[in-house]
């Protein structure tokens, strides 16, 4: 059954919210977990759709997956009997490609369907495949499947032509049990790269330099058991930071690494929001309408593309003209038409959104085009005058755990109801007046 969010805008968010584990780190870590035959325990796992899809795919090849609770899982890869992941089991997610690197690294062969994920651009994986080939693997693409195999994997020097999160993690996975040294140059530096490297090292891998643009991996013979807790989700935290500012609220966002949020904090401060940093929390508040700025998405430590729709939504409500340049993905402005239906004034020219701030939005029936754009539209609904319904929330549920419940606990007026259920819609409207 498909659900939608119904939102009555106008309530400032107040209180505390606890951020979950990082989805994009967890996806790499779960794939890495199958590379040992010993049992691995992973904690602070976000309970979101992408993670559950990946866990099901991992089970489908025979690995033993034991849920110890909503945020903890035990994986044992000794029971794996197959190295083929078909399209049906992973078409909804992008990070299925990490199973290629993990299976190739462990068994020297893998067959994985070409990845899905959000439609935010053409999203080639040539750099992943270039990395596998450099390690000595043969790679063919046939009938929608990527087949890769090798007699032996040998370390090599790999220069990435583009800074790619996925290729960096995949090459770390494939090379950590290769013979000799692999060096990845022009590597991505995102916090989740460091987290996957730390997890692999906790299993006995020898990876140095993660978090810089040069990562050195000395191959080891085997990986062993580990217990590991995933870092907090930078993007979930950033989304609540923006929601607090957009609703002119005051929210303490707990279980975060403030350093990972700096690019977001700096921009919020620049436009007039108040951001206070604590050891593992940030507090964001705003009293007045905020100001304008220029933002360009860049690889870490630049402004994250996964926060682009949310910050653009905030700027759509701010004073003056802002520009948001999307430099990573060519198709990440699909939410602009939906925001326009709520009264925003945004013009897209190439990869630049020119935003003329408006004083308010009005509720409308809108559809989430992808994960982060969906979250941004919810933020718009929280601010808008009147009622907003957001459809296609399965996108949002790919990456946000209990998004509606966390927002409601902060004072938002929103609920998840079945799509086209007029009775539930009226019930909500009666309840909130
Ligand atoms: C599951 C996951 O972690 N997803 C994140 C990951 O996606 P993903 O790993 O797919 O993104 P990449 O960092 O690889 O992509 C960055 C850029 O490189 C290009 N590229 C990438 C690989 C390749 O082989 N060839 C190539 O040309 C892409 O088209 C894009 O323009 O990082 C993105 C950038 O921070 C985030 O928006 C996604 O949320
Ligand atoms: C775009 C994202 O995910 P994916 O790369 O899995 O589509 C995201 O997490 O914002």
From TrEMBL:
UniProt enzyme class: transferase
Pathway where this protein functions: Cell wall biogenesis; peptidoglycan biosynthesis
Keyword Oxidoreductase on entry: no
EC numbers, comma separated: 2.5.1.7
Gene3D superfamilies on file: Enolpyruvate transferase domain
2-(S-cysteinyl)pyruvic acid O-phosphothioketal: residues carrying this PTM: 118
CDD domains: UdpNAET
Keywords: Cell cycle, Cell division, Cell shape, Cell wall biogenesis/degradation, Cytoplasm, Peptidoglycan synthesis, Pyruvate, Transferase
Localization per Swiss-Prot or TrEMBL: Cytoplasm
Source species, domain of life: Bacteria
PANTHER family reported for this sequence: UDP-N-ACETYLGLUCOSAMINE 1-CARBOXYVINYLTRANSFERASE, UDP-N-ACETYLGLUCOSAMINE 1-CARBOXYVINYLTRANSFERASE 2
Entry-linked NCBIfam families: murA (TIGR01072), PRK09369.1 (NF006873), PRK12830.1 (NF009470)
Entry protein name: UDP-N-acetylglucosamine 1-carboxyvinyltransferase
Lineage, highest ranks first: Bacteria, Bacillati, Bacillota, Clostridia, Lachnospirales
Gene: murA
């Amino acid at each position: 059954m498909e659900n939608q969010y119904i939102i009555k805008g106008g309530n400032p968010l107040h209180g505390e919210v606890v951020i979950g584990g990082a989805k994009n780190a967890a996806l790499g870590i779960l794939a890495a977990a199958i590379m040992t035959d010993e049992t691995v325990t992973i904690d602070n796992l976000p309970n979101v759709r992408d993670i559950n899809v990946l866990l099901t795919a991992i089970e489908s090849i025979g690995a033993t997956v034991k849920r110890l609770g909503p945020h903890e899982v035990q994986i044992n890869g000794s029971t794996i009997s197959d190295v083929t992941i078909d399209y049906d089991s992973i078409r909804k997610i992008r990070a299925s490609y990490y199973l290629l690197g993990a299976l190739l690294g462990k068994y020297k062969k893998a067959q994985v369907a070409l990845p899905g994920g959000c439609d935010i651009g053409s999203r080639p994986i040539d750099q992943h495949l270039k990395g596998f080939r450099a390690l000595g693997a043969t790679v063919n693409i046939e009938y929608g499947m990527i087949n890769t195999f090798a007699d032996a994997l040998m370390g090599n020097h790999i220069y990435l032509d583009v800074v790619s999160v996925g290729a960096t993690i995949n090459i770390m996975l494939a090379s950590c049990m290769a013979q000799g040294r692999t060096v990845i140059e022009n590597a991505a530096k995102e916090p989740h790269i460091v987290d996957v490297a730390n997890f692999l090292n906790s299993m006995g891998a020898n990876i140095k330099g993660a978090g810089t643009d040069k990562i050195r991996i000395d191959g080891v013979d085997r990986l062993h058991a580990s217990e590991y807790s995933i870092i907090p989700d930078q993007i979930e935290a950033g989304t609540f930071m923006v929601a607090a500012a957009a609703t002119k609220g005051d929210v303490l966002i707990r279980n975060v690494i403030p350093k990972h949020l700096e690019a977001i904090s700096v921009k919020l401060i620049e436009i007039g929001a108040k951001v206070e940093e604590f050891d593992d929390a940030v507090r964001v508040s705003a009293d007045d309408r905020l100001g304008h700025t220029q933002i360009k998405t860049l690889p870490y430590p630049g402004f994250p593309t996964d926060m682009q729709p949310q910050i653009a939504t905030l700027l759509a409500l701010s004073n003056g003209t802002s520009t948001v340049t999307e430099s990573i993905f060519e198709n990440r402005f699909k939410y602009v038409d939906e925001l326009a239906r709520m009264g925003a004034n945004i013009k897209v020219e190439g990869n630049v959104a020119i935003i003329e701030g408006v004083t308010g939005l009005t509720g409308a029936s809108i559809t989430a085009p992808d994960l982060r754009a969906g979250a941004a539209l919810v933020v718009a609904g929280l601010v808008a005058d009147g009622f907003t319904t957001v459809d296609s929330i399965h996108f949002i549920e790919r990456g946000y755990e209990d998004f509606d419940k966390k927002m409601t606990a902060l004072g938002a007026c929103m609920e998840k109801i079945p799509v086209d259920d007029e009775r539930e819609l009226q019930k909500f409207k009666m309840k909130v007046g």
